[in-house]
Amino acid sequence: MVMKLLKSAEIIVKKSRFISYYYEIDDFDEIKEILSDLKREHKKAKHIVYAYKFENTAGKSDDKEPKGTAGLPLYNLLDAKNLNNRLIVVVRYFGGTLLGAGLLQRTYRASALEAIKND
After folding, report:
1. How far is Cα 77 from Cα 36, in angstroms, rounded to an integer?
2. pLDDT band at residue 1, thresholds of 50, 70 and 90?
3. Residue 49 bridge partners (DSSP)
4. Count of C-beta atoms within a 10 Å radius of residue 5
5. Residue 4: CA atoms inside 13 Å, Cβ hemisphere, count?
6. Which residues contact 12 (CB under 8 A, 6 or more apart)?
7. Number of domains within the chain
8. CATH number for 9
9. Among the listed residues 89, 116, 99, 94, the one whose alpha carbon sits nearest the alpha carbon of residue 32
10. For residue 54, which phi and psi values (nearest 5 degrees)?
11. What is the pLDDT of residues 32-74, one digit of tens each?
């Protein structure tokens, strides 16, 4: 399978690194494969959150972040911009400072926005 990484971006907030990846998806199985590859590549990451819209299905994961602070902002971006057959993944390396729910939500959204810019 050929993974179509459209763009990636990185932002740092209070020493936490947020690395976002934006993919075009042609097959539902690609989602699992991409997530598996990223988990292997980023073994020391604290969280790997994602959201996708593929044909008539959608999904998201907060990956142990507080409920609604990670996957939901990513999904809302895909939905608001009407982006279909897309996957956004944000990898977080914890920097030692808790960000709080509001800042966490804004940071995941900002990270994803960087990756989907111009689409």
Report:
1. 23
2. low
3. 90
4. 13
5. 8
6. 18, 95
7. 1
8. 3.30.230.30
9. 89
10. -140, 115
11. 999 999 999 999 999 999 999 998 899 999 999 999 999 999 9
